[in-house]
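User: Show me an example of a complex going from sequences to structure tokens.

Assistant: Sure. Here are the input components:
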Amino acid sequence: MKTFWQLLRVGFWMLPLQRALTVIGLTVLVGGQLFRLPFNMPGSTLPITFFGVMLVIIVPLLAGGAFLRMLCASRALLLRPHARGRLLAGAFGILMLATLCWMFCYWLAFQAVPPKLRPDAEALLLMFSLTLNFGTMCAVVLFIASRSPLWTLVILILWQAPGLLLHAFGVEDAARLLGGPVGVLMSAAVGAVFAVWFLRARRIHAGAWRRRDVTGDAADPAVNAPQAPATREQAMTRWVLANGTSPGIGLQVLVAGLVLLLIQWVLGRQAGVMALQSMMIGVLSAATLITGAVSSSMARRSRALWLPAGRTRLELHAWMERQMLRVAVAVGIAVAACALLVWVPFSPRPALPLAYLVPALLVPGLCAGWLGLMQQHHRGFFDALAGTGLAAGIFYGLVQPLYVGTAEAPWMVLAAEIALAVLLREVAYVRWRGADWRRAQQA
Amino acid sequence: MNDDYVVETRHLAKDAGGRQILKDVSLRATPGTVVGLLGKNGAGKSTLFDVLLGFATPTAGEARVFGEASSRLSAGCKARIGFVAQQDELMSLMTGEQHLALAASFHRQWDHALIQRLAREWEVPLNRRVGVLSGGERQKIATLLALGHRPDLLVMDEPASGLDPVARRAFMLTLLEIAAETGRTILFSSHIVSDIERIASHVWILREGGIAWQGELDQLKESTVRLVLRAEHEILSPRLSRARSTARCGAARRCWWCATGILIACRRSNGSRAHAWK
């Protein structure tokens, strides 16, 4: 139990960002219930409840697997009695607790509507199994993803296999089966296999999210082959993008986006066109995270460039910003190409005008880019607040209007996002002007 | 194999990457001893610790800790061991306090008073994220993590390499204090001979993967000759050359650092000391 409490602390309260998100999320959750804030969905407080819960659990959900790997990668942990078992039990305990909390909030969100419109026990059970399935998938897949992208792909394909098979064989009510008994069985099976491996593995290695450096593998003849000498600019670009390129990142986003859209279409086509479009666009807007993560990584790698680049802080900032914009454009093109697929073949098309949809899809990427660039040597409450605002912008400016099927574009949300982008750019500029290389995290 | 030994290896060998890292290593440590492990870079010190504690499996031979095979240590046996790695494996996002709280949650008994006292004496900033601490401070936190459950066997891979001389002295004194507790065994590797001289009761010298020397420190010192000569000019003066040849023919021959060479110390005319190695 002591380990469970410590893990809870690591998951929700370890970093200032987590603390800020937990406090903001709980405030949104409680405020939404107290003041009955329905936003665009009259009758229930589900959107605000969902938003509040997501704020609280977003970090453990997206980083829980990586945290678990970091905790158990230490060799000294192998000498702690039953340490891995306790860590695993704690992680599953948190997963179960989060699922139950979400169930409670989901039930609470419908207390304002007439009883006949409230979800029945079967709907609650379905929501429970869906949430547990999703949480287990996030934890296990992200644990593996923090080390091996290839194995992540294999696990994802295996995970989706039952759904694909159910649809392929034309099983009636496949969506309900998949969300219910099949989903629970898949979670249990994956959890059991993962637990056996986790407890028996001699050594669990630390995460390896970095790409291989040019000089990383001395034994590889391709690496040792003589390379054309790089200019200073090229060398700097290679360093900040971890030996990648902007078009390469864009291509990866395009492939990942197409695969995700295909999975969404296969699994969600029975849910109706509007819901499917909403889900697909929601998934595409997750590319914002890619831009933010890349620009944040660029900013953190900037310390090593301070001496060799031979530029002032502001010159370096301007160069970094250009690189970030190149990445944002590459990712934006990939997202726009994927969005065309969501737009063209479906009938009816989204009611939102295209003139709104395209900027609403791309502006959050720019915001995330500058948010990442801000984190050269500092992360704090403002960053958490900006991230929350960005998430709210995507949710209320894109996902929800598409889900509801309204033709009225929430231009105010888009305007707020543009204002946020300008603000974040200014903050990034000010922070870079006084960049503290001593405090900057070493890449 | 004798269960009276805290650590015992027999004909231990370890291959990795097509290279033999350990070969025919037979060692033993009794309760209450403080063993200093000496060796050059790449001699196999860290690998020996890895195999001893079960992190890696031996290619041949056997290693036992508290009478149990290293590769299958029970939970009870593990609870009696503390380990400090050469490069700390701390999570840079967590503070020292959070690390200690998590480590304490794995043990039934955790000596909070000892940890607080040591943290105060070593001036460890426990409330700051590990990622922003210096190498020495991180090393101190790693040591605190290994000491909290009062292990019977403490294994430390170059624990003082990142510490400044003052901190190192304080650290070594604490180790001496901990070692003084009945029955506690300490294994530690170091490049710093004075550290080993200061606290070790026994010395193991590894050379190219094999054991070059093992025994009590005093015994090792007795088998070593240190000649102090007065040279008028440079180290390789004719008088020194004569001294070297004399030493080679004399009774005592071994340098206890490399176990094969002869250490000759001479004093220059300006009073400074110089050393020559054969």
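The lines above are the inputs; the final block is the predicted structure for all two components together. Chain B has two domains: 7-221, 224-277.
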